[in-house]
Amino acid sequence: MFVDLHSLFPTVVATEQLRMDPLQVAAQLQTLLALRGDQDSNPDPGCAWTGDLNGVWQLHDHPDFRGLADQVVARVWHYLKATGFDCDQVDLHLQRCWPVVSEWGQVVGRHHHPNAHLSAVVYLSGEGTGDEGALCLHAPRQLNELVPGLAVGHGGPIGDDHPLNQRHWLLAPQPGLLVMFPARLDHSVLENADPDGLRVSMSFDFVLSARPSERPPEYLSPHPHQWQRCQRPVP
Ligand SMILES: [Fe+2]
To answer: Percent of the chain beyond pLDDT 90?
Structure first.
């Protein structure tokens, strides 16, 4: 007999396999490679090319990707509902949508998206093995290390792979796989270890606001239409 273990305060990461037409995916890949142009890194040769740093960040307005963006938006509403949001109080804004193309040997370094609330990724390539570079979500802290930092030292005392002390979570890309997670979560992309495989994904950043209202909730940003753009100082 053992005491009951209550794992409290979970972070929700959602995945769904979207149905994708292979011919449409092939056309989307061609479009993205054309948008990438001659540049194939960011610009460090070891860093994957990302559209957000290269002027390609509004794919949701591109005819080849509008339908996919609509599918992702529908899933984000599900995510919000499933995590307790009263969707009647919220407006959802798709702020950015950009491609990430990772060649053999390239990575995306650890980062999060401070410009957004919720992030999503859809993969357009991958074999489901992770060889082309798994997505890595990093635990903000190991909550069961008892005090911050106890798990960091060399040689333990906490095992690296214990399920109640996870440092990270890996997701192997495959075409149509969608993942959604809070934008605050640090994430990275492991090295593309497939010499023949191009890793291609699309990232989405969402921002929540209140609906246009006289009385928006206290900590939800009022709707952008109710903001006032301030005068810049005279030079
Ligand atoms: Fe990211």
So the answer is: 83
